[in-house]
Amino acid sequence: MIDQLTSTLHFIFGGDFPDDPLKLHQAMARGVFIYLVVLAIIRLGKSRSIGRISPLDVLLGFILGSLVSRGITGHASLSGTAGSSAALVAVHWVLTRLACQWHWFGDLVKGHADRIVENGQPLCENMLHHHISKHDLDEFIRNKGIDDVSKVRVAYKERNGEVSVLPKKEPPTVLEVAVENGVQTVRIRLE
């Protein structure tokens, strides 16, 4: 029974670390297997590699991609690929957990946000530090529906590389409506 199972798994996957070049169906089976294993590992590790990513998440993605590709093509064992992937996601989980608990550690491993515009004025030194040109800044604010930097209250280069923009608040429009027959004027404030 165990010999039959071992033989079947060897036929499907080509062995944990194949001796021969993989056949097409074995490479396909290994790809599906590694995909499901890494998906489970990432879900357990609470990785945000699909959502808002930080440099830490990008690094995990690159390393996992390289690692699992070797497992799929047969240049690394299935067990080694699964174990290494689990170890990487576990370390990533620990680092991101510590970054949530200690702000200084989060700044160390994820970076920090920097102001690049304040009260409609670009902060050129901070922009230069992040390699953001005036044209880049104009593009960022246009993508937020703002046509001029002078209309920006504050903008940040965020830890994940995005630029967040908060517009200046426009003063409310006040309309005065006269009421007939000696009744007091009504002021309507529109925001």
What is the gyration radius calculated from CA atoms?
28 Å
Helix-strand category: alpha+beta
Provide the low-confidence segments as ranges.
none
Order of strands, widest sheet: 2-1-3-4
Strand content: 5-15%
The helix content is: 40-55%
Oligomer class? single chain
Distance between the termini: 76 Å
Give helix and strand order, one letter per element, not per position.
HHHHHEEHHEEEE
Report the average pLDDT across residues. 82
Number of domains: 2
Shape: elongated
Which terms would index this structure?
191 residues, alpha+beta, CRO Repressor, 2 domains, four-stranded antiparallel β-sheet, two-stranded antiparallel sheet
Short structural summary:
This protein is 53% helix and 15% strand. With 191 residues, it is α+β, with helices and mostly antiparallel strands. A four-stranded antiparallel sheet has the order 2-1-3-4.
Annotate the secondary structure layout.
Blueprint: H1 2-13, H2 24-45, H3 55-73, H4 78-101, H5 103-110, E1 114-118, E2 121-122, H6 124-129, H7 134-143, E3 152-157, E4 163-167, E5 173-177, E6 186-190
Antiparallel strand pairs: 1-2, 1-3, 3-4, 5-6
Helix pairs in contact: 2-3, 2-4, 3-4, 4-5
